[in-house]
Specification:
Blueprint: H1 7-15, H2 26-36, E1 45-49, H3 55-63, E2 68-73, H4 76-85, E3 91-93, E4 106-112, H5 121-131, E5 132-141, E6 148-150, E7 157-159, E8 178-187, H6 194-202, E9 205-215
Parallel strand pairs: 1-2, 1-4, 2-3, 4-5
Antiparallel strand pairs: 5-9, 6-7, 8-9
Length: about 220
C-alpha cells in the first residue's frame, strides 16, 4: 500500500494537477465581494494566511487603501504563481508558525477557507490572534458534511477537497481579550445553471461561516 501523503503533500499535488484547482469564477468573486464587507474601510494593513495564488489579496488591496500587506502560503509553487500573476504583491512561502511575524503587526488578518484543511486548526487560530492588531476574519464552509473518497495519488481514503473539519458557530472558541461574532456568506448560485440561479435568488443558502474576532482594547 502506498504511503499516505501528508496534508501539505496533498496540497502540493493538487496545485500541480492543472487549472482545475486554480480557476477563479463568478461564484468566487461574489464570495470575495461579500467577504470584503468584514474588512473595515479604514484598515491600513492586512495579512492573508493561506493566500493561494493571491486572488483575494489582490482584490482587497485594490479596494482598501492598505499601506502594508503580506500573503503567506505553504505551497512554494502557488506563491510562485502569485508572484507571476500579481508582481506587486508581497507574498512568502512557508508555515505561518515558522515565519518571523511580530505580534500585533497587521491591523487585519484573514484566513479564507484555510482552517478546514489544517489538523490542529485551533493552534493556528491562536497564532492569527497574536498577529492581528484589530481583527481576525476566518471563513469556512458552513456545517459541511465531510465526505471520504479514494485518493487517486495514494489509493487511501481521504476527505474530499482535503476538508478535515466541519464548522458551525459552536466550533469557534472564545478567547480572552477578544469579542467573537459571526456572519454568513451566501451562495447565490452565480455562474451555475439557470435553475440553480433562480433557486438561490429566491432562497440563498448560508454556504460559508464568517468568524470575526475583534480585539477588546483596555
Amino acid at each position: 500500500m502506498p504511503e499516505a501523503k501528508t496534508n501539505k503533500a496533498v496540497y502540493e499535488v493538487r496545485s500541480s494537477d492543472g487549472e482545475i484547482y486554480g480557476v477563479i469564477g463568478p461564484r468566487d468573486w461574489d464570495r470575495f465581494r461579500q467577504t470584503l464587507a468584514f474588512v473595515p474601510p479604514d484598515a491600513r494593513s492586512l495579512l492573508d494566511c493561506g493566500c493561494d495564488r493571491g486572488n483575494w489579496l489582490d482584490y482587497v488591496c485594490r479596494l482598501r487603501k492598505l499601506e502594508d500587506h503580506m500573503g503567506v502560503d505553504v505551497s512554494a509553487e502557488r506563491i510562485g504563481e502569485a508572484r507571476t500573476r500579481y508582481p506587486h504583491l508581497h507574498v512568502e512561502a512557508g508555515y505561518l508558525e515558522d515565519l518571523h511575524i511580530k505580534e500585533r503587526s497587521y491591523d487585519i488578518v484573514t484566513a479564507l477557507e484555510v482552517l478546514e484543511h489544517i489538523p490542529e486548526w485551533a493552534a493556528v487560530l491562536d497564532r492569527l490572534l497574536t498577529i492581528a492588531q484589530r481583527r481576525v476574519i476566518v471563513t469556512v464552509p458552513y456545517r459541511e458534511q465531510i465526505i471520504q473518497t479514494v485518493c487517486i495519488h495514494c489509493a487511501r481514503l481521504t476527505p474530499l477537497y482535503g476538508h478535515l473539519h466541519s464548522f458551525s458557530e459552536e466550533s469557534f472558541p472564545a478567547r480572552p481579550g477578544w469579542r467573537l461574532s459571526f456572519g454568513y456568506i451566501r451562495d447565490r448560485g452565480i455562474g451555475a445553471s439557470l435553475a440553480r440561479r433562480v433557486y438561490r435568488i429566491l432562497r440563498p443558502r448560508r454556504a460559508w461561516l464568517v468568524a470575526v474576532y475583534d480585539r477588546i482594547h483596555a
